[in-house]
Amino acid sequence: MARNVTTQRKIVNTVLAWGIGLLIFFPILWTILTSFKSEATAIADPPVFLFFDWTLDNYRVVQERSDYMRFLWNSVIIAGGSTLLGIIVAVPAAWSMAFVPSARTKDILLWMLSTKMLPAVGVLYPIYLIFIKMGLLDSRVGLTVVLMLINLPIIIWMLYTYFREIPGEILEAARMDGASLKEEILYVLTPMAVPGIASTVLLNIILAWNEAFWTLNLTAAKAAPLTAFIASYSSPEGLFYAKLSAASTMAIAPILILGWFSQKQLVRGLTFGAVK
Amino acid sequence: MATKASRSAARLMMAPAVILLLGWMLVPLCMTLYFSFKKYLPLRGGDLGWVGFDNYVRFFSSSAFWPSVIATLVIVGGVLAITVVFGILLAILLDQPMWGQGIVRILVIAPFFVMPTVSALVWKNMFMDPVNGLFAHLWKFFGAAPIEWLSQASMTSIVIIVAWQWLPFATLILLTAIQSLDSEQLEAAEMDGAPPLSRFGYITLPHLNRAITVVVLIQTIFLLSIFAEIFVTTQGSFGTKTLTYLIYQRVLESQNVGLGSAGGIFAVILANIVAIFLMRIVGKNLDA
């Protein structure tokens, strides 16, 4: 910024932005705070903000009572597995479209994106039926595959935009120097592609972790991930705010941390390159 | 640079992705289309034969259809209005010089990473609960009677929850777009004496045009199919039964697959109309 900004204006900006920022963040902050309260304190009238007896009880109770670890494990396997599968399928596809483009590459890319626009509810029963017939209902395998498929277009798209930024001249130079195709991929392309693949993985884990249509409709007790576990709190018994908060905090903490690392990729991944 | 050999290799490398997506798109869609012309009640007799367009007629003429269209429009429209207007304002604010910009950005973006079931339940219980919710305390503090948010103001409540989830997305994209605006243009206008409002109206807003369109289109596609937020709050009661939720209920709750499938086809067509516009913008950008 070449403009001279008065300190006074900067102070106003800072106060305003922090105020709004904290207001938007407040529900998350409140959840985290409540998770450290006793159930009685959690519904105290008037509400208490910081000055209460901090306790880790809720975290212990949630883990003991609800088999929390199993839900967490399901989330990890489903989000991680679908991302891994997606990358395995998408890397060759994106690579070939970026480096050996044909007249139809653009149409294929757009068509792939358009499959992402298919409303899930429109194909709910067929998928449900296929899952029953194949014994996949409430299985981690089935859910992993479905989440891989719904996010595959985004993975391919993101990888494609990253790969396209790798200059083709470098490949030609490597070839001139006598590199074989294998060497070219292993020693030239891969190191340059790693950052792009890493951010694609990051964004996709976030999307898969938070997916809440298929995970709610295709699982019951066995394969349910955290989204479904939290949903089970929608018909609670007794006092449960503090426990709900503890469970929620545990479910969102890993993704909040991952998410903050992936702000930039978010724009690229979710606008399909339409905003840079 | 592409030889014949590398072309066929490229085709081979694309094959798994293309085949998977083609199968994922075509198989269930054809099944939905097939069911939509059948009377199909899995729990009450199964496949009861072809009925032509009967399901479509019944879906569109059922008393639940128009309310669900209205609920969908209100939610999509309300959330879009809030996220775009506040997204622009927030993006402009976050672009100003200040202390701790990075941290404020993180605070603003955070809701996007909260899973839908968590945000819906936290809002429902800890904010909108008529007895113990924070809003109830706030209302009482100002001497007003607490509102039963999810029943008396059900649509407002859902719009608040969903807008909170999507405001970060709009802000982040609009901020990215604003940061690509040449600040010299604004400075030149300022020196020529253009007041802030006209600088915004004649320079910033036109520059944001495409980003706003993209935000609107992408959000519309995702908002048309919000599910978890309704599933864990009102379950479709109090006028919050959207098209997506109505179809879900027809298909899985009342197991009237034929009727639900007709609705499903309608939802697919609706989403495609929005998608066509989005694809056009994305495609143009691909050429550039």
TrEMBL record, chain A:
Q: Which GO terms describe its cellular component?
A: plasma membrane
Q: Which GO biological-process labels does this protein carry?
A: transmembrane transport
Q: Does the keyword Signal apply?
A: no
Q: How does it sit in the membrane?
A: Multi-pass membrane protein
Which InterPro entries does the record associate with it?
A: BP-dep_ABC_trans_perm, MetI-like, MetI-like_sf
The record's keywords, sorted A to Z, are:
Cell membrane, Membrane, Transmembrane, Transmembrane helix, Transport
Decide whether keyword Transmembrane is in the record.
yes
Family matches, as Pfam families = BPD_transp_1 (PF00528)
What subcellular locations does the record give?
A: Cell membrane
Q: What is its main location?
A: membrane
Report the transmembrane regions from the record: 12-33, 71-96, 108-131, 143-163, 184-209, 240-261
**Coiled coil spans:** none
Record-annotated ABC transmembrane type-1 domain positions: 72-262
Q: Which family does it belong to?
A: Belongs to the binding-protein-dependent transport system permease family.
What is the name attached to this protein's record? Carbohydrate ABC transporter permease
Q: What is the scientific name of the source organism?
A: Pseudosulfitobacter pseudonitzschiae
Its lineage opens with:
Bacteria, Pseudomonadati, Pseudomonadota, Alphaproteobacteria, Rhodobacterales
